[in-house]
Amino acid sequence: MSLHETVRTTLRDRILSGALPVGAALPTTAELSVEFGASRGPVRQALAALATEGLISTGQGRVPTVMRAPFAHAIDDFFSFSAWVTAMGRVPGQRTIELALRRPPASVAAALGVGGDTRAVDLVRVRSIDDEPVMIERSTFVEHVGRLIFDFDPDAGSVFTALLDRGVSLEHGEHTINAVAANDQDAAALDVAVGTPLLRVHRLTRSAAGEVIEVADDRYRPDRASLIVHNSRTRTAPAPSAVRRTTTEGSR
After folding, report:
1. Which of 60, 158, 173, 187 has its CA 20 to 30 A from that of 75?
2. How many other β-carbons are positioned within 10 Å of the β-carbon of residue 236?
């Protein structure tokens, strides 16, 4: 790990753990340089990265201070967004932008394992915590599952819970995590500037029989949500093709 990444990771852990609470001033660049045995360049690079994540506020002539820490979401537990938020004692919310039956793009059709002429159901929603937008969710469901969403109000709560209640088998999830710049729709939905770095989770949801039910693209504001993956030395090592992917089981 590079020196600036060491500084960034250490400070980030202190912020997320509460050791550096919201509103607290960070040590000066000189003090951090002494602590980490680094020149000011790597320290400033680390602070800039933390500012980009929304964890600290910086400015010319101002001491960097801690902003609100993001909510930590463990994606190795395959729970719904609503269940996660409720478990934190917060209020989940959702606003549907689009619900449509259409032919999916070729890449999505391939991921769903359907033909190019087969229709699927697209669902785009903004998910919120205490009325603050945190994530934009784009899901494409195979038609026989997605059509069920038209029978209830997706703004009323968890779509996954509603599908489970209707007998849909949602048992396995595969998550690929990366970063993406906010496009126009992301920016408007999440109240951020176009080009803002977002934390993206590409998800495949399978039934107990292995059928792909959903292909999803979830984009989180990194200043409001962080993702946690728990690992154990005793778990079976993943195959080389799955190194960048986390597989979970349960109900989302």
Report:
1. 187
2. 6
